[in-house]
Amino acid sequence: MNIVLTRLDRIGDLILSTPAIASVRRSWPQAHVTLVCSRHNAGVVERNPDIDDLVIAERDDSPSRIGARFRGSTDLAIALAPRTLDFVLVGATRATRRIGYTYVRRFMTRLSARRYLTDLAISEADPDLCDRDPAYAVRHEVDQILSLVSLAGGTALSRSLVVSIDGADRAKVAHVPAGAITLQLAPRWLRDGSTLTSTLDLLRDLRIFGLPIVAAYGAESAALAERVRADLLADVVIGDLPFSSWAAVYEKSAVVITVDTGATHVASAMRRPTVVVFEHRYFNLNSQEWSPYDVPSVILRKPADTAPASLARMRAEIVGAVGSLLGVR
Asked: 84 CB contacts (<8 Å, ≥6 apart)?
């Protein structure tokens, strides 16, 4: 049996897809499993034990051309992302079963998906429905993706995130102190209910715990990282790392603090307690679908404004959340 899986979008979403990938392997242990991903998210799965072949789609690759490589030899193809690009790739395989999912009120996508898929699952996720009714329940993305494996006939489901790191990864970050509070720098710390000044003040406030402070960053936050470094607000400022080295930094941390980015799911994969500050808008949806997975965590909501009192309150909530995860009263 030949199975093709595809996920072309973000790092965090591919991490949340690893339980489904593991479930495919366990449900069809003799199958040959190929995963198609993007250059951007490939680091998540380069050492994944549940994949036989990894195909990296470059930006200029046509999903239909990639999918056509598997035509005539594929029994099952699953689009792990609710996106048309992944649907097109899966459709081009002409597999006997072609499975994917989309969101409940994406009506045009639901119509067009029928061109590519034999089976379409519908997710209940919708920001407007969540805003209208705070009690509206949305499954975690892990469980939404696992439902695709069940739809395909898989019965051996795994719910553990799978990210592999090794001694070489750990050696690259040996200078990072163990047991630190790690803050992931990201553009969302600088807008929409958060500011540069407040973020720098948060790093100062975190000194109350007497633990090392690590500021991690990606290329998009290099300028913010330089400011943190210049102001001596962290014991270590480290960033723009290969994925596995980034994960190794988190593995050493006592707690991770982040806004709503893929960092949330790297921390979950490394089994680290996590504080996540979600955007004010669409909080009810995002805090359910993309919350830390199966780790101790505190979920917070950004204020609707950047008034000094609102920002001070948010910083106090973050510090309190860190204290609760560290067991400090």
From this structure: 109, 112, 113
Give the domain extent around 260.
174-324
pLDDT at 240 (0 to 100): 86
Alpha carbon separation from 221 to 39, 98, 121, 217 (Å, rounded): 20, 39, 37, 6
Last residue of a domain, one of 121, 152, 183: 152
> Do residues 95 and 69 lie in contact, with contact meaning Cβ atoms separated by under 8 Å?
no
User: Taking 80 as the threshold, does the pLDDT of residue 278 lie above it?
Assistant: yes
CA distance 206 to 29: 47
How many structural domains are present in the chain? 2
pLDDT, position 134: 87
pLDDT of residue 142: 98
Asked if 143 and 101 sit in the same domain, the reply is: yes
Report the side by side order of strands in the sheet with 180-184: 236-239, 213-217, 180-184, 253-259, 274-278, 297-301
Tens digits of per-residue pLDDT, 232-243? 999 999 998 999
Report residue 79 as tokens: 């689009």
Does residue 145 share a domain with residue 178?
A: no
User: Could you tell me if 54 and 45 are in contact, meaning their C-beta atoms sit under 8 angstroms apart?
Assistant: yes
- Nearest CA to 158 among 26, 4, 49? 26
